[in-house]
Amino acid sequence: MKETPQEKRIHENMKAGVMCAKGFLGSDTRHFHEIIETDAAHLQTLGYTREEVADRMQALTNAAFEAFMGSITLEEHLIVEYRSFRGKLTCPFAHPGGFRKGSVTLQNTRNNITLCWTPLNIHMIREHGFFEGHGSEHRLDPDILIKALFN
Amino acid sequence: MEINAFIIFIASIFTSNILLTNFLGMCSFLSVSKEVESSVGLGLAVVFVMTLTTALNYVVYHMVLVPLNIVYLQYIIFIIVIAAFVQLTEMMLERFSPVLYYSLGIFLPLITVNCAILGVSLFMIIRDYSFLQSIAFGAGGGLGWLLAILALAGIRQKVRYKFVPKGLQGAGLSMIITGIMAMAFIGFSGIVVIQ
Amino acid sequence: MITTILTTIAIVGGMAGFLALLLVVAEMFFANYGEVIIDINGKRKLKVKGGSSLLSTLNENKIYLASACGGRGSCGFCKCKVRSGGGPLLPTEKPFLSPDEIKDNVRLSCQVKVKEDIAIIIPEEIFNVRQFAGVVSKIEDHTYDIKELTIQLTQPTEINFKPGQYVQLQSPRYGKIKQKVSRAYSISSSPDHTDYIQLIIRRVPDGICTTWVHDFLKEGDEVSFTGPFGDFFIQDTRADMLFVAGGSGKAPIKAMLEYLDARNSTRRMGYFFGARSRKDLYLDDLFATWEKSMQNFAYYPVLSQPTEQCEWNGRCGYVMPYFDEFIQDVNNTEAYLCGSPGMIAAVVKYLVSKGIPKEKIYFDSFA
Questions:
Q1: Do B91 and C26 touch (CB under 8 A)?
Q2: pLDDT single digits (tens) C219-250
Q3: Which of A84, C58, C80, C162: disulfide with C109, CB 3.0–4.6 Å?
Q4: Is there a contact between B110 and B25 (Cβ–Cβ < 8 Å)?
Q5: A2 lies within 8 A of chain B by CB
């Protein structure tokens, strides 16, 4: 598929070993546009918007950030923990600024789903609707993500 | 053909507009007309390429193809000349105007396959224009293309903040606008007709 | 028939070849920018060959601006003020610059092409930054995810830095990783040792550089880095020093304490190390030794999530409440913090509420 030089750069950024060791595409061979479109359609059927999902993730991340030394339990069934690392990640879509390297782990004790994301993921979901490719380290499948966040 | 070169120049801008009358060069026209600034940039690049390639192709046709009796090669040769020339234009743009170079992105090399460019060269051959007429035709064709894309960009900018039905958003409405513009340009045919 | 085919091929080939040659000549002409002058801070003038990016041109002349992505335009670290001659602002630079920076003519040096005489302003400390080559003489495992490297310098053989500064270590292409990157790590050894440096490196999941260090790097390997960078220093006063760190944030603190120990400093010092459980503690014996050898040093490890296996009967929870054990005079206390941004924010808030002025709280802003 024909890509503009900018899209090519974005695609390169997403491959393994450029911005992070495993990349954002995992074992997915689809173009990132396709991944975004498919996930967007899926998200619509589940009844949530990107902003709602991103806001919820941000709220949980903020709470965990304050409790920097361990995990905290929110709303009785959500255990969130924030581990931070030095340095900043930039958005593969060439957005301004860096995003803290932090790893947020969410464990939903009601349905036993454990997920992990970074502040960059929240930005990519909110601004680009990008949940990462199948098989990627931080792939946030809309199905599983919504079950973990809202159930 | 005995038409005055200047008349050809005027006619190819308005009444025989390569885009609105012959409907050539539509793809980059529809994509780049989202923004007025890049439309101007691309339009000027097209004027430059169209004028000079028409002249070059005239020279190549009459000095190389006709004497050697291989006029059937005109399609291949014209495209090769256009491709090389666009590459040259890219180099010059990167050197002298990097901002424009980056904002045009992939649409610069896409000028090569802009059918309007090849179309103008081929029309020049079919209508058997002289050298001066060819240059006038090339320049006029380019300016006509620039005028059309500028008009569409301006209209699209206004339409951006108005309500458009979902099915017509983007290319749909642009095509309707282009059609209406084409009909409007027929109104110019009172000035002069060359085809 | 044959002649027609041959003529056709000859003509088409000839035309294409001629045009290609024309393009090659044109490129040589257009891409050649000749020699230009880079004026640095109005004091130094460099005569260089134009055509490359400002970042790489400066690097070739041994001036190293910080860069984590190696000049690809994706990290935004290589900012530099261009007074004149940088050309128009490119769309690839805009995402990384604030409106104030754009007004101030700050540019991304990896995107600015040196095409004409150019005048730039860079901070004086950059001149002390060099490219170093060294050999890994020791890799020590401190915890399940922290290693300390000792790098013996080979070229040049000496380094000059202040305790608290960091270097940018360059990771090579390895395994599936096709790019070189550089990442910042604080120096954990004292500057009194000019022929080697030590770095404390914690594994970052999915990290490019730390995965290389933890899984691929071996003793005897060659490494390269640039430095020193940073403005996290020991303030030259007589005030009490409150150190707070967590995880690999211990590195600059260790460098500072080693430096102070060598000078038999009599300043009051307290180091609060916050960790989750026992397995995150390391170098405890070193700090215990310092407690004995230094006149006024106390070490306070605090665990926030000790498990039963820890058998911990020391301090638990957050570090802040324990500051009271150390702080005597809030007007004569300086705080040095290095760790996660969450920790730094919480500790700063607490210290300010206790009455320690914000200007006396120093932290390594990288974490």
A1: yes
A2: 999 999 988 888 888 888 888 889 988 777 88
A3: C80
A4: no
A5: yes
Find out whether C202 and C188 touch, Cβ atoms under 8 Å: no
CATH code at C249?
3.40.50.80
**Helix (H) and strand (E) counts in chain B:** 8, 0
Give the separation between CA C231 and CA C162, rounded to whole angstroms.
9
d(CA C182, CA C172): 9
User: The pTM is what?
Assistant: 0.69
Closest Cα in chain A, distance from residue C361 (Å): 19
* Virtual torsion, Cα B126, B131, B136, B140, nearest 10 deg: 40
- Report the distance separating Cα C141 and Cα C301, nearest Å: 19
Residue B115 corresponds to which tokens in the numbers above? 């059918």
Q: The tokens of C303 are what?
A: 């665990």
Q: Does B106 touch chain C (CB under 8 A)?
A: no
Which of B31, B102, B106, B108 is best to mutate for the A interface (most A CBs within 10 A)? B106
Q: Where are the beta strands (DSSP E) in A94-146?
A: 98-108, 113-117
Asked whether B25 and B116 are in contact (CB, 8 A), the reply is yes
Query: Per residue in A54-110, pLDDT tens?
Result: 888 888 888 888 776 677 888 888 888 888 777 777 777 766 666 777 788 888 888
| Tokens of residue B37, six digits | 């600034």
| Residue of C92, C209, C340 to mutate, interface with A, max A Cβ within 10 Å | C340
Note whether residue C23 is domain-resident. Answer: no
Give ipTM to 2 decimals: 0.77
Nearest to A118 by CA among A144, A143, A139, A149: A139
With respect to residue C206, please indicate whether it lies within any of the assigned structural domains. yes
Whether C222 and C255 have beta carbons less than 8 Å apart is answered as no
